[in-house]
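=== RUN LOG ===
request id: a7f3
mode: sequence -> structure
chains: 1
length: 146
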Amino acid sequence: IMKKVISVCAVLLLTLGVACANADRPIKINEMPATAQSFLKTHFPNAKISFAKVDDELISKEYEVMLADGTKIEFDGNGEWENVDCKYGVVPEAIVPAQIKSYIDKNYPDAKVLQIDRDGRYWEVSLTNHLELTFDTKFNIVDIDD
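=== RESULT ===
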């Protein structure tokens, strides 16, 4: 019986530790890394912020900001943007690398970028024409999804 009690306690403590470590909590914009604050001021200067939160992982942090217009922006622990999702608008052009913008302008001149995502290996963009384009780190197109 004692072994079972110890096992159950160990599992509960481990579960509780993971739950606490992976806790989203609301924060103020000025609690975010300076890089993220600068990004928001530069690319979304007039945006009304609905909320900001930090996701405290065991070994890292991630930040998320939701704007009143439905735009969601995700940042890594250093405040570098990872994902910009403009549900009801378009991604500010200055965020889109010139090579990707050039490819879109040439191949889909009427399309705009609704979402852009980068993860260190790929850049993914979702367009208003419902296509999803994936580029490698050298901005070569590697996939087109509809």
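=== NOTES ===
Residues 44 and 92 are 8 Å apart (CA to CA).
The longest helix spans residues 2-21.
=== END ===
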